[in-house]
Design brief:
mainly alpha
C-alpha cells in the first residue's frame, strides 16, 4: 500500500522490518557468545549431523539413479539409511538442547517471579535429563541384548546402528544437565 505521496505505507515498512529481522536471526551464528569449548562441541556435532544427512542423501540418490537408469538396486542401501537415521535424530536433539531451542513454555515461566521461574526451568531441565537417562539405560539394555545380531545384507552388528538409542540419549541427558546448571546460575 502507498500513501498519497507514493511512499510505502507504515504496514509495508513494518512487514519489511520484520522480514529483515527474521532473516538476520536465521542467519546468525547460534553459538555466538558461547565459550570456546561449547562452540567446538556444537560445531563437531553439527559437522557429524551434516555428514550423516549427506551420506543418507547420497545413498538414496545413488540407489534411485541406479534403479531407474541401470535397472539395478543396491540391496544394502535401505539398511544403511534406516540405520543412520537414529544417529541423525540424536545429533539434532543434542544440538537443540545445547542451543536452548527445545520447546519450552516460556509464556508460563514469565508469569512467575524470576527466582521461581528459574527454579521451574531448572526442574524442567532436570526432568529432561532424568527421562533421557532412563531412555539411555533402556537403549543400553536393548543393544546389549540384540546389538550383536547381524544386519540382513551387510552382516554388520546391529549395535553399530542401534547404539544411537543409548549413546545419543545419554549425550542429550548430559546436555540437559548442563542446561540445568546454566539455568541455575542465571545464564
Amino acid at each position: 500500500m502507498r500513501d498519497e505521496a507514493g511512499d510505502a505505507a507504515p504496514a509495508d515498512d513494518l512487514a519489511a522490518q520484520i522480514g529483515a529481522a527474521s532473516r538476520r536471526q536465521e542467519l546468525e551464528d547460534p553459538d555466538r557468545g558461547l565459550p570456546l569449548s561449547d562452540r567446538v562441541a556444537n560445531r563437531a556435532v553439527e559437522i557429524l549431523g551434516v555428514g550423516l544427512l549427506g551420506a543418507i542423501l547420497a545413498i538414496v540418490f545413488a540407489n534411485a539413479v541406479s534403479r531407474y537408469l541401470l535397472n539395478y538396486s543396491f540391496a544394502w542401501a535401505e539398511e544403511v539409511v534406516i540405520g543412520l537415521v537414529p544417529w541423525l535424530a540424536v545429533t539434532g536433539l543434542f544440538l537443540s538442547v545445547r542451543r536452548r531451542q527445545m520447546i519450552r513454555v516460556e509464556f508460563f515461566l514469565d508469569k512467575f517471579p524470576p527466582a521461581i521461574g528459574r527454579l521451574l526451568a531448572v526442574l524442567a531441565e532436570l526432568l529432561g535429563a532424568v527421562m533421557l537417562a532412563w531412555l539411555a539405560w533402556l537403549g543400553f539394555r536393548y543393544v546389549a541384548t540384540f546389538g550383536g545380531d547381524p544386519t540382513p545384507y551387510l552382516a554388520l552388528p546391529k549395535g553399530l546402528f542401534t547404539s544411537a538409542l543409548w549413546l545419543g540419549t545419554a549425550a542429550v541427558a548430559l546436555a540437559f544437565l548442563a542446561a540445568a546448571w546454566r539455568e541455575r546460575r542465571g545464564r
